[in-house]
Amino acid sequence: MPHFVIMGVGRVGAMLARTLEAAGHTVAVIDQDEAAFRRLDAGFQGRKVTGVGFDRGTMERAGIEGAYAFAAVSNGDNSNILAARVARETFRVTRVVARINDPHRAEFYQRLGIPTVAAVRWSSDQVLRRILPEQSLTGDYRESSGRLMLAELHLHEEWAGRPLKDIEEAGGVRIAYITRFGEGLLPEADTSYQQGDVLHAMMRTREIDEISRILSSPPHEDDGVLRTVKTERS
Questions:
Q1: How much is the pTM?
Q2: Given pLDDT bands bounded at 50, 70 and 90, which one contains residue 124?
Q3: Which of 62, 71, 108, 144 is 20 to 30 A (C-alpha) from 4?
């Protein structure tokens, strides 16, 4: 069962904890103020760890080792980024997201390879999209027939450096635009995927589960993944 660690038990941290636990996952929450845990439901079964969120010992008590994802959502930008870096670089957590209050710092954080969500356009749903990729293809737009959908793609880290055309062929999607360092970008013929990019693509609604499965896995060096997709759709 996937385990999630959340640093910061404000309104959003508490909402994330409730949502993840209700979905059947194990959850640990970290906060320096023990009183913050009162925001959690009385029936919350997860771990409540009092301490500094970026302290290694505190993280270990929260079960960061082997955690599926880590979300730093306290009110402090520096604490969130530091904790996110420790989770990723020390404990090798793949899915990490940090909340920031200063959107002008987003580009720097993205260059560190840490997905960020700025407070000005922030919600718990955006965090969940980044730490639960299998739930990300809910769609931002559906055309009138319901057959096509525009949604964010979440790729395995080994897709970094690959041309977008490879991603389109593997997933059977059409990439409409990229969000890079918080700004929209129309892809060119030779554009490649960079770590931290958010890809927005049109896809067939009936294929979203298969698309998510394929792109959340590493690309096959022998291009076998492309042949597999074509065979499954034939």
A1: 0.60
A2: low
A3: 108
In order of 49, 66, 195, the CA distances from 192 in angstroms are 41, 30, 10
Query: Residue 98: in which H helix or E strand, if any?
Result: strand 95-100
pLDDT tens per residue across span 43-59: 999 999 999 999 999 99
Q: Answer yes or no: is pLDDT of 27 > 60.
A: yes
DSSP string, 146-204: SSEEEEEE---GGGTT-BHHHHHHHHT-EEEEEEETTEEE---TT-B--TT-EEEEEEE
Tokens of 54: 């970026």
At 221 the three-state DSSP class reads: coil
Cβ(159)–Cβ(167) below 8 Å: yes
Mean pLDDT in residue range 53-81: 94
- 117 has which bridge partners? 99
- Tokens (6 digits) for 64: 């960061």
Largest CA distance in the chain: 57
